[in-house]
């Protein structure tokens, strides 16, 4: 009951004209960047970071939350109309959604996506209200060793479980951790990785890293692949659904929500896995299996609900533990740190107003998004006609301005360019961006807890093992890292029947791979978007 | 010598096409239909779909005209694409659809038609939809 009271209080705080305006701005910007492939909520939040240092934390967070949710709505529009997913989370939507659009049912596809997103987002946010405080209650009892273990689980989760290649994930994490190390060591006063450059002594600002990797890296990538055939504009009427469409959509919406929320909440979830699982489930359960591959509405409704629910789920570890599980959450976390607020289990106790206002704004933003997206979907699709040079000139301008504004040093601009080149190289060689940005943001925190644990135990390594939570955590880490080995052994022992137990990529197994692959090929830009858009 | 028409999938394009068919008949010359699709945008409203171009081909066939339908997919400048095609085939006349614009609208948006009118080295027939 306490939570609901606090939530109502949060609604009271949000319902001021200024805050509503920020929420509206957030959802509009979010939808816009969601529609545009390659430009995701993570990049947008990064670009807006320097601007928001002048705002109240609550207002900025309300806007960021709107951008985050809006990106999930907008991504589906592009998926359905262009067969080019606007966001990585709507890759699966493109499979059936675009077939529906080609069959002249674009309006219904857009409607089921928007309404499903709304329902899933609302249920997901409700679950967030119920689950998050419980986790906080548990988390405040954790000491440094346990907290370190949880961070390590998150590191391994984002780098080894998500994405196609563990090596690349871990390499990317290592790059991130190295960048996080730059600067003066707070304990010993030693300079680390500063190359004797005085400007690096304070470390590299997260804004510069995020903007460099997301905005400049993406800009360079697009510049290297500028020319590309345009698509025809598919005429869309007003999105609407018939009785039959409602009947076929509501169950997938709920099932998608059930898939999405828990996956968003665990550090290795992301939005791709649950959307894919939802798609596979709908295909199995559908009464019209023959329609799958030709535009089945269930195949749009389920995954769209799943990706919005996972967005809500992502906020559970972010608010309760200070752990980001996707890129947007990682940068929101950096923003919270930027205001001098310490994220983590104590956030709810110290800043209850901020947290509950943020959650209340999610409900409001979600409603705004439904109202914005349902009637305006055709207008959003017009954004796709903006010539890319204009778009990226704008992005690079904002990126440079943001990086310069942090400290007013020209040095940061060189750094920005360097990091942009790094971002370009990472895209070129298929390194996922998420582990890197998580490494940059959580690295210093991990080090802090690492040292604190050792200090508490007087330098005894056993101090790192702490209590049961840490044991479970490290157990999971060992299991995940050793999984290929274990799986290989199990397979050898049991003959060659080991496919079923393959937990890491079980849902993406055998027969499900083809549709996803065809959708990703339609990206026309390699593995770039999947890492970006989260 | 050829009659060249810039085709876009809307009523301006249709008006231009109709006028060009008449012109080709009157001059007893082959017809070249060009559709320009920009390559720096994700979706282009001026891009004619394959079915649309096929329909145009069929219609021209039925009229018994010697005609070619071409799509240009490179670059971001429809005027330049059209003028280049005109130079290529040594067009005797260039037919385009013209949109009504207020002076202010003209100022803001610039105009492909204006570029074509100013830069073409052959006569240009500018048509407005009925």
Automatic annotation (TrEMBL), chain A:
The chain crosses the membrane at residues 20-49, 61-82, 109-131, 138-161, 167-184, 315-336, 356-377, 389-405, 433-450, 470-490. Pfam families: TctA. Residues 20-437 form the DUF112 domain. Residues 498-534 are annotated as: Disordered. Keywords: Membrane, Transmembrane, Transmembrane helix. This is Tripartite tricarboxylate transporter permease. It comes from Knoellia koreensis.
TrEMBL record, chain B:
Residues 2-128 form the UspA domain. This is Universal stress protein. It comes from the Bacteria. Belongs to the universal stress protein A family. Gene3D superfamilies: HUPs (3.40.50.620).
